[in-house]
Structure prediction request, 228 residues.
Amino acid sequence: MTEVHRVAAPLRKQIVELLRRAIIDFEFEPGERLVERVLCERFDVSRTVIREALRQLESEGLVTMVANRGPVVAQPTEAEAEALFEVRAVLEALAGRMFARRATAAQRAMLTQRLADVEMAFADGELSSVLPAKDAFYEALLDGADNPVIRATLLSIHARVSLLRGLSLQAEGRASRTLDELRAIVQAAVAGDEAAAWAACEAHVHAAADVAFGQLRSLTPEAATGGA
Prediction:
């Protein structure tokens, strides 16, 4: 049974995070049915809390409601993934450009620190550490970009591609390439080079997309073609 700290945060929020992490870490496989009774026992919470958490994850694209089966872990198709990565590339590139233009000295220092945190997370070798460190990196980038519309939209996209991000980061050799790409982003953004920051952010997303598509195709034929 997974331990839930009931006073640390609203219960539903805790369960959403725990279930999201279990999906991203592939404790539940794409296409696997999520049985409410099993989840209630695992997290020691009521069906109401589980149903609320599943609805939240459905809105993020991690869970799909299937007729006569109920909630299952989403199996993103290649077409869906391509559409998400197209939008993500533009938004991250724009965030990089705005950071280079607007960020304060303190925000530039914070982005550099967040890169160091990502490097440490990769050194630990645990996906459960890498994704939060990368999320913190993007928070620093978005803080410096100072555009609430970019922030809200990009964070929504990140939630929807979190399974694909997990797939990409687990690919052989991807860790070192990811770090090189993030270093290029930081170098350009901190230096105030708007064009280079745009290009570095865009290149990072395109590289991640290429790897994620390869990983997606390896899951099942249905994942790649969109079959049931």
In short: DSSP finds eleven helices and two strands in the chain. The chain has two domains: 11-73, 78-225.
